[in-house]
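Lab notebook, design round three. We kept the backbone fixed and only want residue identities now. Task for the bench partner: fill in a sequence for the structure below.
Input structure tokens:
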């Protein structure tokens, strides 16, 4: 069983920055691919970014490429999402997720992830 707890959300003005954190339980965090997803009101959950357990390969949604950066600290069992130049359309609940399949490339599909956090709200005002 893996528990994920997100933090770092809040209210920020457009063009501002936030850093989200996701703390994971479990002794094998270093072998999990980790992803961030978001869900805006009335919309489906969408992929944001992911990082692999091996070689820390990263993948991003086109809408956040160049503005968001995903990283991980295996010693702290934590994955981060640095969000810069935020836009009002980035407003959503942000979720982190863990893929425990040992795949070499981080998946962009929510169906590939086994465990989810409860989310943290990010609101960007114009």
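Proposed sequence:
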């Amino acid at each position: 069983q893996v528990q994920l707890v997100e933090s770092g959300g809040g209210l920020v003005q457009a063009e501002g920055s936030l850093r989200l954190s996701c703390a994971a339980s479990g002794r094998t965090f270093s072998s999990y691919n980790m992803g961030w997803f978001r869900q805006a009101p009335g919309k489906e959950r969408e992929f944001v970014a992911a990082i692999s357990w091996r070689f820390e390969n990263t993948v991003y949604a086109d809408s956040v490429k160049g503005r968001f950066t995903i990283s991980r600290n295996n010693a702290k069992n934590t994955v981060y999402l640095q969000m810069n130049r935020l836009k009002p359309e980035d407003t959503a609940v942000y979720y982190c997720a863990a893929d425990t399949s040992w795949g070499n490339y981080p998946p962009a599909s929510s169906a590939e992830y086994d465990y989810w956090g409860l989310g943290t709200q990010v609101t960007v005002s114009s």
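Keep this in mind before ordering anything: The mean pLDDT is 95.
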